[in-house]
Write a structure and sequence with these properties.
The complex is a heterodimer. By secondary structure, chain A is of the alpha/beta class. Chain A has 3 domains: 19-220, Rossmann fold (3-Layer(aba) Sandwich); 230-303, Ubiquitin-like (UB roll), CATH 3.10.20.600; 310-404, de novo design (two linked rop proteins), CATH 1.20.1440. Chain A contains 18 helices and 9 strands. In chain A, helix 6 (100-114) crosses helix 7, helix 13 (308-322) packs antiparallel against helix 14 and helix 14 runs antiparallel to helix 15. The longest helix of chain A is centred in the last third of the chain and has 18 residues, at 328-345. Chain B is of the alpha+beta class. Chain B has 7 helices and 4 strands. The radius of gyration of chain B is 17 Å and the shape is elongated. Chain B starts with a helix and ends with a helix. The chains are: A alpha/beta, B alpha+beta. Chain A binds chain B through residues 84-90, 92-93, 124-129, 155-161, 172-178, 193, 234-238, 242-244, 270, 274, 298, 300, 302, 306, 311, 314-315, 318, 321-322, 324, and chain B through 8, 11-18, 20-21, 48, 51-52, 55-59, 74-76, 78-79, 111-120, 124, 127-129.
């Protein structure tokens, strides 16, 4: 399947600094149409489209909006999550760089639907260079009269992966350390400052204008039974053409990685960043969808020269550093895993290590407070499943070499 | 301190993070005195402000140089030999990770994914992204920062 541009429809075809180039391509027509509908009708359309969150969690977007719409209270918030910190993910950067106007339009539609008069864009500190692009887009949209009854504020992060997690993100906006919250209550009931709040990823929002303009039926005809529309992937690692590619949901991993990005001699692919699932080459025909593997759409390709254990160790090092530290299973679990994986990678592993990794994985997945700790063991378990021999051979070798040196 | 009070009014501490970021940009670090003053003006415990200052990687309680180099050490850059950038910067500046040059011109840190994996290996200098790096390119880039 070739590339299919829905989310990226305007990218590189408009001038991101000039709103008139966007208006020429039907910009803000969806907002105009949405405002002629009732908020409930807008929500129904989004529900009918089957759009699910593109940030990694995959919650049905319209259902979430409906919860916030129905939640009691006059003050509600919409937050656009532009804290793209997932390792190997840069699609939102590309979107913000090339089409800040569709995002602005989408925020206005979403705010109208849920009944929010205040919206926030939470931009990661590493993307500070995009701040002016965003401010300019918001100013121009305001000048053209598209943002009446809505204030959109930009909040900048200060370097913390966990702030991409929605509850930590809200704490960060409130001026606190970005730590995950206990849930329930969920944000549509009690979010920012305890008010009903919707947090949507940049890419999720980008789907809204085309859904409103072309209809839920058109949108839901794309993709698989449960995964509707397209997905934008960030492809990097051992490929000829790293970059941002949008394909229909259900496209095969092989098409994205090999046909489009030009990977050769693939050993494995990690889909969804540091906590993403690992797919061995033998399964390269796996379709990309919520039913199989997707995450935030970060695709990191490893060729045959790569050491599986070393790569998993580095991912875990990242997660241990970025764990917010609030709950013990994640804070301690990731640290212990770094210790074990580091030992294995350096040839100092022992037989018991594999069993400990598996046991610890279960504890973390079951009892961590948020997605970070719950998903941290995924690459460990996946590689133990598909590359178990790599682990066992390394341990056997290590034990043998130590015995030669007279060490147990 | 009145300015601090004004900026943090309304939703209480909503602007606290932005305030710390501004001070970081202006002074190159968050001093103990500054942290204590902010806490006092907001009538929140010092530990709350210190907690923020040490939680976010772009804030520092140690004085940083005029230019901060942050080299990405995450997996996509690692696959494209980010170790080479680290070694080149170390050689060019004569300092290692976490250090600042004696003239205060550069500080050098490692950071997690900066979202420039399509241009790996990559680094940030202050707010600028530099990608597709090679040793020669790094020497040229460093000259741009005074």
């Amino acid at each position: 399947m070739p590339e299919k541009r829905v989310v990226l429809e305007n990218c590189e075809l408009i001038d991101p600094s000039d709103i008139t180039t966007h208006i020429e391509r039907d910009g803000f027509k969806a907002l105009e149409k949405a405002r002629k509908m009732t908020p409930e009708e807008v929500i129904e359309e989004v529900k009918a489209s089957g759009l699910m969150g593109r940030g990694g969690a995959g919650f049905p977007c319209g259902v979430k909006w409906e919860l916030a719409r129905k939640a009691p209270g006059d003050e509600k918030f919409l937050i656009c999550n532009a804290d793209e910190g997932e390792v190997g993910t840069f699609k939102d950067r590309y979107i913000l760089e090339h089409d800040p106007f569709t995002l602005t339009e989408a925020i206005a539609i979403a705010a109208y639907a849920i009944g929010a008069k205040q919206a926030y864009i939470y931009l990661r500190a590493e993307y500070h260079f995009l701040l002016d692009v965003l401010i300019n887009a918001l100013d121009q949209a305001k000048e053209k009269g598209f943002l009446e009854h809505l204030d959109i504020h930009i909040r900048e992060g200060a370097g913390a992966y966990i702030c991409g997690e929605e509850s930590a993100l809200m704490d960060s906006i409130e001026g606190k350390r970005g730590e995950a919250r206990y849930r329930p209550p969920f944000p549509p009931a009690k979010g920012l400052w305890g008010k009903p709040t919707i947090i949507n990823n940049v890419e999720t929002l980008m789907n809204i204008p085309p859904i409103i303009l072309d209809g839920a039926r058109w949108f839901s005809e794309m993709g698989t039974e449960k995964s509707k529309g397209t997905k934008v992937f960030s492809v990097s690692g051992d490929v000829e053409k790293p970059g941002v590619y949008e394909v229909l949901m259900g496209s095969k991993l092989k098409e994205v990685v090999m046909d489009i990005a030009g990977a050769k001699n693939v050993k494995m692919v990690q889909v969804g960043g540091a906590t993403g699932g690992v797919i061995p080459y033998a399964m390269i025909d796996t379709p990309l969808s919520y039913e199989t593997v997707l995450g935030s759409g970060g695709v990191t390709v490893f060729d045959e020269t790569r050491d599986v254990i070393d790569c998993v160790y580095r991912s875990m090092e990242f997660l241990a550093e970025e764990s917010c530290g609030k709950c013990a299973p994640c804070r301690e679990g990731t640290e212990v895993m770094v210790g074990i994986l580091g030992r294995l990678a350096q040839g100092e592993g022992v037989q018991e290590d594999i069993g400990v990794l598996e046991e610890l994985s279960n504890v973390m997945m079951l009892s961590s407070m948020c997605g970070l700790g719950q998903a941290a063991p995924i690459p460990v378990l996946d590689t133990l499943k598909y590359f178990r021999n790599d682990y066992q051979n390394r341990i056997r070798q290590s034990v043998f070499l130590r015995s030669l040196r007279g060490i147990k | 301190m009145d300015a601090i009070k004004e900026q943090t009014s309304g939703r209480g501490r909503e602007n606290l993070l932005a305030l710390l970021e501004a001070e970081q940009g202006k002074s190159g670090y968050l001093s103990e005195v500054f942290i204590a003053e902010v806490a006092q003006s907001l009538t929140i415990p010092i530990s709350e402000v210190y907690g923020l200052a040490t939680f976010y990687s772009f804030l520092s309680t140690k004085r940083l140089g005029r230019n901060v180099i942050r080299i990405c050490k995450s997996v996509p850059c690692y696959l494209k030999n980010s170790q080479m950038i680290i070694e080149t910067v170390e050689r060019e500046l004569g300092i290692t990770t976490g250090e600042t040059t004696s003239d205060g011109r550069f500080s050098f840190e490692l950071t997690n994914c900066i979202g420039a994996c399509d241009k790996a290996p990559a680094m940030l200098i202050n707010n600028d992204v530099h990608g597709d790096l090679s040793p020669t390119k790094i020497s040229q880039i460093l000259k741009l920062y005074k």
